[in-house]
Amino acid sequence: MGLSQRLLALVSLGASAVAFAPRRLNIPSGQAARLQSAALKASVEDKDKVEVTEYFNNEGFDRWNRIYSASEDVNNVQLDIRTGHDQTIAKVLKWVDEDGDAAGQTFCDAGCGVGSLAIPLAQRGAEVSASDISDAMVSEASRRAEGVLPAEAFSKMNFKTADLESLSGAYDTVTCIDVMIHYPSERMQDMVSKLGSVSNNRLIISFAPKTFFFQALKTIGSLFPGPSKATRAYLHAEEDVKAALANAGFKIKREEFTSTSFYFSRLYEAVRES
């Protein structure tokens, strides 16, 4: 029995206990339905989080550590994804360099992976808090940073294992690159709101856009068996992401799009509305 089934069973058992208890609790049917729906939603969210955490601490870490490195032990698809991801990171850094505001600024890189963005930000003089849901990813990011940064720059970095919901503090800029693909549409707005709550000035986020072509590509890919599809991949409508940013108090300043054969990503830079 899966986690969601167990939770639903507990809800059903709880309802039965209420029905036969000496003291009856009057719970409107609509409220009971909402409670069951909330329990099911929570179970699905927890299952997603567990899957993502386990994947990126084990098989996924080995695969993506190779992709996000100079390793030659990658296939053509993985090499293409590396190229696309590198292009997205380069676009973020181009914006930062154009503004000339990295040195002395505070950045939160949420979902830092192996440090592909966090380390270059630190090299530019930023104070960076880098977090990821995966212990393995955070450890690798810290190892890489220590290996390439001067001691003073490395001392300004803070690495921690945390999911997006656990973010705290206040930063000049919050970045979240190639992470939203792990969050379903119904949770995306909450995630953007959370990211916005710890950003004083700017949000930079990327996501896989939901278009007819990309949805078809994702559907076709799901028809082929293989061990690599260990976690769910979620696409997001651009209008939904824009609305989530607006609801969080941000307006889009710049945007970019990266597309290779197997990688596609919309990138937004949003600034807090005064």
Automatic annotation (TrEMBL):
<dbReference type="GO" id="GO:0015995">
    <property type="term" value="P:chlorophyll biosynthetic process"/>
</dbReference>
<protein>
    <recommendedName>
        <fullName>Magnesium-protoporphyrin IX methyltransferase C-terminal domain-containing protein</fullName>
    </recommendedName>
</protein>
<feature type="signal peptide">
    <location>
        <begin position="1"/>
        <end position="19"/>
    </location>
</feature>
<dbReference type="InterPro" id="IPR010940">
    <property type="entry name" value="Mg_prot_MeTrfase_C"/>
</dbReference>
<dbReference type="InterPro" id="IPR010251">
    <property type="entry name" value="Mg_prot_MeTrfase"/>
</dbReference>
<dbReference type="InterPro" id="IPR029063">
    <property type="entry name" value="SAM-dependent_MTases_sf"/>
</dbReference>
<dbReference type="Pfam" id="PF07109">
    <property type="entry name" value="Mg-por_mtran_C"/>
</dbReference>
<keyword id="KW-0732">Signal</keyword>
<dbReference type="GO" id="GO:0046406">
    <property type="term" value="F:magnesium protoporphyrin IX methyltransferase activity"/>
</dbReference>
<feature type="domain" description="Magnesium-protoporphyrin IX methyltransferase C-terminal">
    <location>
        <begin position="176"/>
        <end position="272"/>
    </location>
</feature>
